[in-house]
Amino acid sequence: MREYSLTLLIAAALTYxxxxxxxxFALRQRAVxxxxxxxxxxxxxxxxxxxxxxxxxxxxxxxxxxxxxxxxAYSRELLGIFLASTFVLLIGILDDRFELDAVTKLAGQxxxxxxxxxxxxxxxxxxxxxxxxxxxxxGQLLTVLVVIVIINAVNFVDGLDGLATGIxxxxxxxxxxxxxxxxxxxxxxxxxxxxxxxxxxxxxxxGFLPHNIHPARIFMxxxxxxxxxxxxxxxxxxxxxQIDANAVFSEDIGPAALPLLLPFAVLAIPLLDLGLxxxxxxxxxxxxxxxxxxxxxHKLMSMGNSQQRTSVxxxxxxxxxxxxxxxxxxxxxxAALVVGALLLIxxxxxxxxxxxxxxxxxx
Length: 363
Fold this sequence. Notes:
- By secondary structure, the protein is an all-alpha fold.
- The protein has one domain (2-290).
- Helix content is 70%, strand content 2%.
- It has 15 helices and four strands.
- It has helices at residues 2-28, 49-64, 76-98, 102-118, 136-157, 163-186, 193-212, 221-242, 245-250, 258-266, 268-283, 296-302, 307-327, 333-350, 358-362; strands at 32-33, 45-46, 125-126, 132-133.
- The strands form two sheets. It has a two-stranded antiparallel ribbon with strand order 1-2.
- α5 packs across α11 (268-283).
- 48% of the residues are buried.
């Protein structure tokens, strides 16, 4: 655990130091978010925050490879995750600068998922009525779909200062906790690519957040949201592939399905936002990727919540779903539900409408 903590701290420190440099570079290259009618920010803000995260991840991997425990996590799967994340980052960089069309971005995400497949990262089985081993082509198709859905879920929720950064940090922390505790409880190797990359994701998010909270000095952009989404999806699929599902079920341990289900649980709010947005736009005869101002964070702000308060509400909502999902594999379900209920109460408390002064009402 000490080595993972060190890895996290290195990633956080590197991201924090690299972000101002990337910000200056983004401004010089005009990779900026202009103020549009649907936007919440009021000033032109540089993008490419994902570049700082990717650089921090790469340097961190170079720095910690000689550690005794973490060094054992270096494998073909880890290389595949890094290469796929690099490819999707490049797509995001181009989109942040030139605003690519939705079909091009979707194709790029599919190609990034194909890189994972080339390195053996794919869904091999599903816990349906026991264990169903999937035909290779079905497993590959399902892998691509899962990767694309998770990437776009993170992308869609990135509409408020610090929102996506915090939600991904909470999601990655829950996934790291699950993968590490699963190894401890069941005698699996604690040195795995899923634990390593999620520890790095937590660090990059924590290092980026001070620059990204309201008022944000830089946005992660599509380069950041797609990069983080792919890494989370790849970590989940990799962990699932490392578990001997038949052994887990035969010992009645029970968490065999969670590696695949956990990302959807911890990203439930972004996924809900994604699903509602697609239904809303299709029902109106628009493209599913057509932007609007009806996301969950928009609705919370219309109730009188500030940007900071809205972010905290959605952080709590993420924790309300993520922590019980992770803990339920190791503690009684009722105890996990109590944790979720407490976070729900906090979220409801924070969601109270703020009273506006007469001056604010006139504005």
